[in-house]
Amino acid sequence: MFFSSLQANLKARATEAAANVAKVEEASKAVADRRTALYNRAVTHYHKAKLDRADLARELEAVKVEAAKVPQLESDLRAARDQCAVSEEAGRSAARKLKLAEQELTRLRLLEQNHLTELNSLRTAEKEKVDDLSRRVEKQRLALQEEVTAKSTELTATAKRWTDDFGALDRGLAAPDMFLLLASGQEAALTAVGVARDSRRRETGEGSSEYFSMDDHLASMAARIEPITKLGWELRKAAEELVPMLWPEEAAPQDISGLISAMERAPDRFLDWKESATRAGADMALSFVLSWYNEVDLGQLEFRRASVEDKLPADLKAARLARASTIAEFVDKTLFVADPNPPLSDGYYMDDEEAEDVPEDDPAAGSADAPPA
């Protein structure tokens, strides 16, 4: 009985101890879980605190940067205050100037009133002077009108007389010499006058008259001047083309007087060009000879053998002329060849009629029959 109760007591204690152990284990497990949770929370808070610390550090740097700007801002604030003070002073100065301007404006208004008063008085005085001057001008105008009327009457009579004279001149009744001078253009002039009269008749209904009006004279003169102008233009164009050809080394004159002077010297210049052509041809012929026979003595070519033309056969003359024509093609015809030994006297050239009367001298007269060495 005793052992049974003891055994039961021991079992009860063992059961209680097992229950306590289970509670202790549960408590240990709960403590471990709690500790793990607390550790995790501590780690989380640590990382968060670390991030917050980094953010605070960045904010601190930004605050330091902003704090570094504070002296500059204070300097700008002081400058702004100084500027405001200057602006206020300028405003006060402008107010003083405005007050002075208002005073000056008041003075100018008073002065304007005085000037208007003086101007009105001057206008009255000037109006009286103008009225007096107008009366005198009107008197002078009337006198001048009478004078102009008399002069106009005189000029009208003179114009009518001139018109009558011009009409007689155009019809060939008043000036026979002028008629002979302008006879070639008389028909064209009368035709032009007829056309002009027809045109005026269609436009204004003007009737025909036996006298020439000023428009008729202008039409007649235009009809006569047109062919003369055309002829003058053609002559000038021909002169402008001819003068550079005759004097290629000189600048052609641009004025008509210079062209006329050059054309007056053109006949002599043509003779100069003829002589230049003969010199150029002879020079080219001698150049051909010397290119093959450089031992020829040019001093012995002063004369030609006597009667050489009579002794040459016709075929040789023809061949010589053909060869001369071929050699002439090598001559520069635009180059003027001056005489290296010009004549001393001015009467070097003769008129064409005198030149025709003088027989051509044979350069072979008095020369020897021996050929040049």
UniProtKB/TrEMBL annotation:
Q: Where is this region: Disordered?
A: 339-373
Q: Where is the composition biased (Low complexity)?
A: 364-373
Q: Where is the composition biased (Acidic residues)?
A: 349-363
Q: Specify whether Coiled coil is a keyword of the entry.
A: yes
Q: Which residues form a coiled coil?
A: 7-66
User: Which keywords, in A-to-Z order, does the entry hold?
Assistant: Coiled coil
The name of this protein is: Uncharacterized protein
